[in-house]
Specification:
The structure holds 2 protein chains of 2 kinds.
Chain A (H helix, E strand, L loop, with lengths): L10 E6 L3 H10 L8 E6 L7 H9 L4 E6 L10 H19 L6 E5 L5 H18 L19
Parallel strand pairs in A: 1-2, 1-3, 3-4
Helix pairs in contact in A: 1-4
Chain B lengths: L8 H19 L5 E7 L6 E6 L29 E5 L1 H12 L8 E5 L8 H8 L6 E7 L2 E6 L2 E6 L6 H4 L11 E2 L9 H7 L1 H7 L3 H12 L7 H4 L25 H14 L9 H5 L6 H16 L27
Parallel strand pairs in B: 1-3, 3-4, 4-8
Antiparallel strand pairs in B: 1-2, 5-6, 6-7
């Protein structure tokens, strides 16, 4: 965190290799501006994302998790994103029940041609998470000196 | 006192028939194994009986205390098996068939129409006595009479049944080869609501308070994995918590890892969990695990109108999709 800048959230993105990763690349090559808050992981398909990845990311202290894949009907493997959609639907609802703000875990369809959408998405999600504040979900209780142990 | 002493007539008839059927199945070589219940070493308890000896079938019981979901043993047993199943257990078996873990022709399901299993902890709370001080517990229809200190008292059955039994939608097995007795009806809506009390009260509080509640609960977890081991839906040969290189969670029972384990477990068994309540009963530190399982059960029901283990022909929930599936959460 810089001295003068406001706090920058860290968002872990799981990007499908065929659509969203290329979309993110396009955002860069077409010089779209978006906050440097994301850390991307390229996955073969949004269907590859096990809900465990999301929990592990939150456990490690990421402030948000974004899962992004091809639009329905566009999956390189025909159906991977449909499976992902079901899995993410129940995951999001369940995490909400546990008490995790749904804005911390988001799902989006971004195609290879939607560089602008990707930039806007990251910008919006970063703003939302900035409002939520840092992820203290897995932090231990405050210690005597006011610091917290990060996992 | 033998457990059968506290059985009313109807159960005794079922029990006799169960023993005859089980013996015949073994004798005729139709199955290699019988999985059922026998009286436990403590009063008001049962213990699983797994046998290939027809003489052992005399020990089989039908009991209002038979709380285990025996379908958990199916995946670990070789050969043809006859298994005693209540409504929820038979759904677990169907779920295993859907997942291709068990072949339908290899199981003989001996269905027991269930009218709910008695929760001894609730009995103790109700009469204010330890289970050792209670002389008898008899279930007759929708009443339970409890005898202690020479005093016999009657209570509505709904007050002593497990929460998941109150919410049970299909107490009579839908999938069976032999059905012992007449089908029983599901319990009333009032009791269904009652069984969700814990969950509803949590849903009423702010998210950070909910998180604080679970964090507090999971700080007790000793990661014995009993919840996983009794769960018929948890059939992975290698669980993610045992992955060591690199580890997903550390084996040290810290609340953070405990929570990651349990939340992931619940997501992994979504669409397979039949709300049998075994995780909750198995927990040695009494974490209200059923609140998690039931919530997931209801999420799955609400989003996909899917009820685990009710149809052996349909594919498991997360191995299929509909183009029209819910999408309102996707940006």
């Amino acid at each position: 965190m810089g001295q003068d800048s406001e706090w920058q959230p860290r968002i872990l993105c799981f990007l499908c290799r065929w659509c969203s990763y290329v979309g993110a690349d396009l955002a860069g090559t077409s010089r779209k501006k978006y906050p440097a808050s994301i850390r991307g992981i390229r996955v073969p398909c949004s269907g590859r994302v096990d809900p465990l990845f999301i929990l592990k990311a939150l456990r490690l202290g990421f402030d948000g998790v974004l899962i992004s894949g091809c639009h329905p009907g566009d999956c390189h493997y025909q159906t991977g994103n449909y499976f992902a959609r079901r899995r993410m639907a129940i995951t999001k609802r369940f995490l909400e029940y546990m008490g995790i703000d749904p804005r911390r875990v988001q799902v989006s369809w971004v195609s290879a041609s939607e560089g602008g959408k990707f930039a806007d998405l990251v910008t919006e999600m970063t703003q939302e998470i900035r409002q939520l504040g840092p992820n203290r979900l897995f932090a231990d209780e405050k210690q005597g000196d006011g610091t917290t142990t990060t996992p | 006192m033998a457990l059968t002493d506290c059985l009313p007539m109807k159960s005794r008839v079922m029990e006799q028939r169960l023993r005859r059927e089980a013996e015949a199945l073994l004798e005729q070589g139709k199955v290699d194994w019988i999985i059922g219940f026998e009286a436990g070493s403590l009063r008001f308890t049962t213990t699983p009986l797994i046998t290939d000896d027809k003489d052992d079938t005399k020990r089989l019981v039908v009991s209002p205390f038979a709380n285990n979901n025996l379908s958990v043993y199916l995946t670990g047993i070789k050969g043809r098996v006859a298994i005693v199943a209540k409504g929820c257990d038979s759904r677990s078996i169907v779920s295993l068939i859907q997942d291709g873990k068990v072949a339908r022709q290899d199981v003989v399901i001996i269905g027991v129409p269930c009218s709910g299993i008695i929760d001894l902890a609730k009995v103790e709370g109700l009469v204010g006595r330890d289970r050792d001080e209670i002389d008898d517990i008899v279930r007759e229809g929708d009443k339970v009479s409890i005898t202690f200190s020479g005093d016999k008292r009657e209570y509505p059955a709904g007050e002593v049944l497990f929460d998941n039994c109150l919410a049970c939608e299909l107490p009579t097995p839908q999938e069976y080869d032999i059905l012992l007795g007449e089908p029983t009806a599901a319990r009333g809506d009032e009791e269904k609501t009652k069984s969700r009390e814990k969950i509803n009260s949590l849903e009423g509080v702010k998210p950070d308070e909910r998180w604080a509640f679970w964090r507090n609960e999971f700080s007790r977890c000793i990661r014995c994995y009993a919840c996983r081991n009794v769960c018929p839906a948890c059939f992975c040969e290698r669980c993610f918590v045992e992955e060591a290189e690199p580890p997903w969670v550390l084996p040290i029972p810290r609340w953070q890892d405990n929570l990651v384990f349990q939340v992931t477990r619940n997501i992994h068994v979504a669409g397979r969990c039949t709300d049998c309540g075994e995780c909750d009963r198995a927990c040695p530190v009494r974490i209200p695990l059923r609140s998690l399982a039931r919530e997931m059960y209801d999420i799955v029901g609400g989003l996909f109108s899917y009820r685990a283990g009710t149809d052996k022909e349909v594919p498991p929930l997360l191995t299929c999709y509909e183009p029209t599936d819910v999408e309102d959460f996707i940006r």
